[in-house]
Amino acid sequence: MDISVVIPAKDEQESIPELSQWISRVMEQHGFSYEVIFVDDGSTDNTWDAIQKVNLINPAFKGVKFNRNFGKSAALHTAFKLAVGDVVITMDADLQDSPDEIPELYRLIKSEGHHLVSGWKKKRHDPISKTIPSRFFNFVTRRISGIKLHDFNCGLKAYHHQVVKNISVYGEMHRYIPVIAKWAGFTKITEKVVEHRERKYGRSKFGWERFLRGFLDLLSITFIGRFAQRPMHFFGTWGIISFLFGLGFTIKILYDKVDSVFISKVPLKRDVTEQPVFYLALVALVIGVQLFLTGFLAELLARQSVSKKKYLVIDQIGMDEVKSKKLKV
User: Fold this and answer.
1) Could you say which of 89, 95, 227, 322 would form a disulfide bridge with 234 (CB–CB 3.0 to 4.6 Å)?
2) Can you give the pLDDT at residue 212?
3) pTM for this one?
């Protein structure tokens, strides 16, 4: 199958019939074999009924229904595991993403060999309360991740099937899938300017709180991506720095004490335990030892997980096993 289109939907009963007709028209014009997977993410309206009606008209349109709202990341993760297309394309159900972009996104993956193509809504039809925070978070994400994309949160993206089969999306991580893909080794990432249409039905499901959660998720995946397999590099480095910092203060305290007793014989103005630097040294030494031990224990756990890790094999020759599976090493 050429294309799997994944569409999370929450309270989008008005949009689904029109969106489905649009997708069908584009696919038939270009001769693609395809499937469309709607994920009803705990809708409170008749979204699921609309999906069922579309399925009766065209069996290529499929659906998954959650018993409650789990969020966009859960919807994408579930659909990614079910998708069978060579190229997986995600889009929102609110008609703000244009299905007319699908053929070019498909070409960028299949013909130009990209792992991931992210849409860039260069001209947006959103209020300033959404555009300014979005630009800020895109800037921060570019700086931290090193991925030169203008719009990480664009719902319109295309993936090689190997990408979606070998990443996990949870929490609010859907906006950082390019970062997750990069840490998984899928580094051929690019972007394409796409049309952003005004919302035709309903209202936006996202509020200000998503930016705080998104920023925390960015820190999480950045830390895990860099240090999951080598935690001692993080904890050990800061532990040594803290320990040396405390050791330096300790040597200073001891030198002042020895100087006052044996060399200058001038009594200290305050006892050692009454000096703030004594407690700074003590805290720094303790924290340094704790961080180092934390790194050591984390390193032991990481080594055990590596021994059980399943590594991705993306191609084989002269073997009977199925390609693109996870092989236990």
Assistant:
1) 227
2) 65
3) 0.71
User: Residue 270 CA to chain centroid, in angstroms?
Assistant: 54
Task: Tell the residue number behind the tokens 């001038």, with chain if given.
Answer: 266
Instruction: State the CATH architecture for 3-227.
Output: Alpha-Beta Complex (3.90)
* Residue 41: alpha-carbon gap to chain centroid: 19
Q: What is the DSSP letter of 99?
A: G
Q: What is the pLDDT of residues 25-77, one digit of tens each?
A: 999 999 999 999 999 999 999 999 999 999 999 999 999 999 888 889 889 99
Residues 206 and 14: their CA atoms lie apart, in Å, by: 19
What does residue 121 show for φ and ψ, rounded to 5 degrees? Answer: -80, 80
CA distance 4 to 35: 5
Number of H helices, E strands in the chain: 10, 9
The dihedral sign for the CA sequence 75, 78, 83, 86: positive
- Please give the mean pLDDT across all residues of the chain: 82
Tokens 């199925």 belong to residue: 322
265 Rama class: left (phi>0) / alpha (psi -120 to 50) / beta: left
**Six-digit token string for 153:** 């949160």
Q: Where are the domains of the chain?
A: 3-227, 231-312
Question: What pLDDT is recorded for position 204?
Answer: 58
Question: Which pair of tokens denotes residue 13?
Answer: 């009963």
CA distance linking residue 164 with residue 116, whole number of Å:
10
